Amino acid sequence: MEIAVQFVPILLTAVILILAFIAWWFRQEKQRLRLQCASLEGELATAKQDGQHLRSRYAPIVDLDAELAAVKESLDRAKREHQEAAAAADRQRTQLGQEYERARATYDGLKREIALLEENLEDISFGLYRPHFSFQTSEDYRAKLESLRDQERQLIRDGRAATCSVQWTVGGSTKEGARMAKQNMKLVLRAFNGECDGAVANVSWNNITKMEERIRKACDAINQLGTVLHVSITQEFLRLKLDELRLTHEYEEKKYQEREEQRRIREQIRDEEKAQREIEKARQEAEEEEDRYQKSLERARAEAAAATGTQLEKLTEQIRSLEFKVNEAHSKKERAVSRAQLTKSGFVYVISNVGSFGEGVVKIGMTRRMEPMERIAELGDASVPFPFDLHAMLYSDNAPELEKALQEFVGDKSVNLVNPRKEFYYGVELDQIEGFVRNRGLSAQFIKLAEAKEYRETLSMRERARQQQQASDGRQDTEKFPQNLFGTAVGSGQAG
What is the dihedral of CA 441, 443, 448, 454, to 10 degrees? Predict the structure, then answer.
């Protein structure tokens, strides 16, 4: 007990010391913690400043998600708007397409209607006309046309030109209804006849099919207008009107052909008369020349009978010369007389004009003139830029027959298929013509290469001018000079 009491002060001291130590330790920790807090507060202030600086510096990056969200929302909104606009555009495009098709159909219809009334030489969309009749003369066409018009008048009198499919009554009267129907039929017939008369009056070679379509359209339109009253033009009357149009057209064409044939005959007669005059003139000149030389010959012979020596020799030489001239003049007169007796004799020529029409194009014609080259010179007058070149000149006692045979031989190569009187042919080989002529027993000299002097000299002058221009410009022109004046290749086989 006493021992325990003795240790109490010690224990109290120890406790006090421990408590003092703990208090000191707490004070130290508190001081350390206070310092640490101060340091942390400083660091926090610095961090706040750094944070504010970094926040202000990297604010866009900090707000990137928000920006991305905003951009995505804008893109989604723009996409929706685009889709809506595209859908609206599709609807509008579809609507515009439908409107365009309707407008185009209306335009095409109006264009066809206008085309029926217009004259356009370049419009061949309706195709070529094929004749429906084959009469030999214009008088046959005229007679058929009169007969056709009589049929039309008879059809109208018989009441078969227009019909009314309903029996009308007016005020309860069938008679008045019949009179009204008759007046309506007369009205549609007058309208239809007016349209047909206009088409017939304006028909020509380039619009015949248009005029046919115009009559059909007029018939359809009038019948459409008459549907309320049940009045219409009959198909039989329509066929007669179409035949009238075709007959009128073919009648005019036949008259044109007959006029052309008459013109050809008149030209032939004029050529024959001119040839006869030339032959007669040549005969008279040869006869006068023969008489003149004969008289000179007789005087020379009379003088020679009394001459001697040198004078005789001179007169003898003169007599030989005069005898030759008398014989030559006599032969010329005999040829002229022979030509005059042969009314179909003449020359068939084959010529070309490379500068005007290109190579491979020839003209085959005929002349009865005593000097056939005069005709060739006439053809190369101011109507063409260069003169013609002669390839062959064939004399024949029946020149028209030979000309026709030659032209038929190359007829499929005619340049003008409508008017063969132009007598130009393309793609013709002179060897073929020469072979054809020799097979008929004729002999002639063929000049294969056309001289074309003026044309070739013109090309040469142009080439020299081009080279001089190049030399003056100091450059080389690589463009090849055309082979003829019109820029098309010579030897192409096409007419210029």
Answer: -130
Measured CA to CA in angstroms, residue 79 lies from 64, 88, 89, 90 at distances of 22, 14, 15, 16
Say if residues 21 and 29 touch (Cβ distance below 8 Å): no
Residue pair 349/390 in contact (Cβ under 8 Å)? The answer is yes
Q: Are the beta carbons of 217 and 113 closer than 8 angstroms?
A: yes
Burial (Cβ within 10 Å: 0-12, 13-18, ≥19) of residue 56: exposed
**Residues 315 and 413 sit within 8 Å (Cβ to Cβ):** no
* 121 membership: H or E segment, kind and range: none
User: For the segment 243-276, what is each residue's pLDDT rounded down to a tens digit?
Assistant: 999 999 999 888 888 888 788 777 776 776 676 6
Question: pLDDT averaged over the chain?
Answer: 79
Give 231: exposed, middle or buried? Use CB within 10 Å, 0-12, 13-18, 19+. Answer: buried
95 Cβ contact partners less than 8 Å away, ≥ 6 residues apart: none
Spell out the domain ranges in the chain: 1-41, 138-259, 272-341, 346-455
Residue with tokens 């290469």: 449
Q: Which residues pair with 393 in a beta bridge?
A: 349
Is this prediction's pTM over 0.70?
Answer: no
Q: What's the token pair of residue 344?
A: 């179909």
Helix (H) or strand (E) holding 426: strand 424-426
Contacts of 350 (CB under 8 A, 6+ apart): 362, 363, 364, 390, 391, 392, 394, 406, 430, 433, 446
From 217, 203, 209, select the one nearest 127 (Cα to Cα).
209
Residue with tokens 């074309």: 452
Amino acid (1-letter code) at residue 468: Q
Gyration radius from the chain CA atoms = 56
Count H helices and E strands in the chain, helices first: 13, 6
**Across 385-391, average pLDDT:** 91
**DSSP assignments along 356-399, one per residue:** HH-TTEEEEEEE--SSHHHHHHHHTSTTSSS--EEEEEEEETTH
DSSP single-letter state for residue 347:
E
Q: Are 336 and 283 in contact (CB under 8 A)?
A: yes
- Which residues have a Cβ under 8 Å from the Cβ of 83 and sit 6 or more positions away? none
What does the pLDDT look like over 338-358, one tens digit per residue? Answer: 655 455 678 899 999 999 888
pLDDT band at 59 (very low <50, low <70, confident <90, very high): low
- The fraction of the chain above a pLDDT of 90, given in percent, is 21
Partners of 349 in beta bridges: 365, 393
